[in-house]
Structure formats: structure tokens, C-alpha cells
Amino acid sequence: MNEQKKQSVPMRVRLMPSYYPRFACTGGDCRFSCCDGGWKIAFNKKDYLKIKRAAKSPELEQLCETTCRCIRDTNSNSYAEFRLPDGRCGFLNGQNLCSLQIECGHDTLPKVCRVYPRTERYTPYGKECSMTPSCDAVLDILWDMPDSIDFIEEELPHAPRITALFAPNELLFPEVRAQCVDILQARQFSLDHRMLLLGMVLNMLKEQLLAAEQQPKEWAEQPLDLTVWQQKVGLLLEGAASGHMFDTLSGNTQMFLSNHLLTVLVTQSHEMLDKVQTMLGLKRGEKEESLRVDPECYLKTAAKVQAFLAQHAHFMENLMVNNLFYLAYPRTATAEALWQDYVALCNLYSYYKFCITASCVEEVSKERVFWAVARCSRDLLHNAQGAAELRTQFFAHNSDSLAHMAILILG
Questions:
Q1: How many angstroms separate the Cα of 264 from the Cα of each of 11, 179, 213?
Q2: DSSP 8-state secondary structure symbol assigned to residue 127
Q3: Where are the domains of the chain?
Q4: Which is nearest to 95 in space by CA: 54, 36, 139?
Q5: pLDDT tens column, 242-284
Q6: What is the pTM of this model?
Q7: Could you read off the pLDDT of 88-112 as tens digits, one per residue?
Q8: Whole-angstrom distance, CA of residue 38 vs CA of residue 29
Q9: Cα distance between residue 199 and residue 1, in whole Å
Q10: What would the 3-class secondary structure string for 115-157 be?
């Protein structure tokens, strides 16, 4: 099989969610500070020198000596990092504010601190600006948006206008993602069923991509024709709206809980593990190594959470649309990449449900929901090693089928 030859595509537009310009850091009022929670805050040599050369008081200079250190990370471009004693950035003061920013100004901060939770990337659509849901203020915005997420498109200046290289099938991305967003916002279906429909739609596209990959000449020269796929999507959505497509579907609670217990262990999220242990009453079998879980507490709490979130049904929808955009899913370069992204999105959605329930055993509240979503997002969206290990687990054990995704979604 030949790889597709890449084409040079000029970046003409900037695309962002309509709420992107509304973001404002809440500073000391933030409930889940990005300077807390055990993150690795690493940056390049330019940022390091800027901090070291900034005029500082003797007290801040001493703090800088103990908090900012050089590292040797051969796997990245990182040159230095902030020490995080007890998981908390050394510059964070008693008011939950940054001592470095207060004294030296916002521009002295490393880029990673200046731009969080925002991110920019170039896709076949153009320059895309998005925000991670690991931030408390972003979740507040998503919570207070009862209408479907809209997007803002702006023309980029002609100069300087960069170009980016994409394989022909990567150019399918804008159209495929638009269809995915439409499905996630199709409120005539429950969100669980929208996630399943998304899998059916992407599975059909995966089959077409696989067929195209067996034809080297066509694969190398031109993108897949989406006409047939779009017709099938239309028929599938019509059938789902008028029939009983989902009536016979059911989850597997034991498998759902076991899957996400593994996720907690892989991501090494100790805070989440404490809550999960309480919820599941974890016990080790006398003659086996596998963990046994008691689903009773989970099921009772999940019912309460479902009733609470039903009053804010748009929140989980907004969260998943935000994530689809933030992650630039699904990649359309190959059938494998397309399906990997769907599996990852399903696992993320399912893990949110699992962890929200675990965090709400004692009380169901907005704050506990936000803590769980922020914690999950940090563990899965900002933990490259953990995400890679989970992906390996799924595909190594043949747990990436649409049937398995249904179990993850329905619980």
C-alpha cells in the first residue's frame, strides 16, 4: 500500500467556538487551579532565560532559585520546569495566585502558563483555536450554554499566511468533523445514542477507507469520494429517528466498571482511585489476582447523577463537542487513525460518566461534577504516556469493536 502524497494547503481562515473569546481566568477563585494537582510544568530555554533575567525582589529571586530548575528531557524540547512540592507549583501563593506574575508581569510567564487552557493548531480547515475542559472556567462556560455550540470563522491576514502539508484523505477532515458535530448535537436522540450513531457513521467511513487503501494509485493521488458515505449517513439517521434501533441495546455494568478501574490504575490518578475504591468496595479474590467490584453503590449513585444532569442535559453534549474540536477528531488520513480517534472519544465520554459518579457518592453537585471532569481531562487529555498505554490495551485485546464501544457508552 502506498502512502498518499501530501499537498500544500494555504491556511486562509481561523475557526473557534463562539465561547472562545469569552474565556477569562478566575485567578484566586479557581476551584481546580492549573498550578495545582501534580502537573508537570515544563518549558523551553527561551522561557527559562526570560524568567531568570527578569528583575525580581530578593524574596522572589530566592523563590525562583528553588522553584525553577533545568532538566534534561531527551524526549521533548523542554529545557526547564517548575518544581511542584506536594503537587503544587512553588510560585503559587496563599491566595492561589502566581507570585511570578504578580511581581514580573504576565509576559514573564512561560508560554504554557500564558496560553492555558487555550490551544492553537493547524488543520485542513485552517487555524483552529480551542480550549481544554481541564479548566474550571471553561466548564463554567459549557455549563451555562443551553443552546448548541456554534463556531466563529474569521479570515486570516494575507501576510504572513502560512501553508501546511496534508495528504489527500486528510482534506476530508472538515466535512467529516462537521457531520460528527451535527450528530452530537442531534437532540432528538439521547447523548448515549448519539455516541453510538457516531460510531456507526464512522465505522461505515472506516470500511470505505480500508477499501481505498487497497488501491495504491487512487490512494496516492486523490481523496476518497464522500458522496456514498453521506447518502448512507442520511439513511441511517432517518432510520434511527423513525424506528426502534436502540431498543434492544443494553450495557454490561461489570465490564464497564472493570474497564474504567483499569483506566484509573493506568493513569495513576490517586485522587480518583480513592473515590473509586469507596464507590466499588474493592476486594481481592482469595485465589485470583483480578479485582472484584461491587456495582450496587455505583448503580444507586449513577441514577442520582443521571437525574441531576438531566436538568442540565446540554452540559455533557457541550463537553463532547468541545472535546471533538479540541482534539481535532477524527483524523481521516487512514482507517486506523479514524477508528482510533472514535475509540478514544468513547473511552473519554464513558470515563467522564464513571468518574462523575465516583465523585458524587456522598453528594451530587455541580462542583463535584466539575472536579471529576477536570480530573479526567487532566488524566486523559494531558497525559500522553497514559493515553498511549490505554490505546495499546484496547487494540491489543480486541476491545475496539463497535459492540465493545456500546458497552462503554451504555455502562
A1: 39, 32, 36
A2: E
A3: 35-115, 253-410
A4: 36
A5: 878 888 888 889 889 988 888 888 888 888 888 998 898 875 4
A6: 0.91
A7: 899 999 899 999 999 999 999 999 9
A8: 19
A9: 26
A10: HCCEEEEEECCEEEEEECCCCHHHHHHHHCCCCCCCEEEEECC
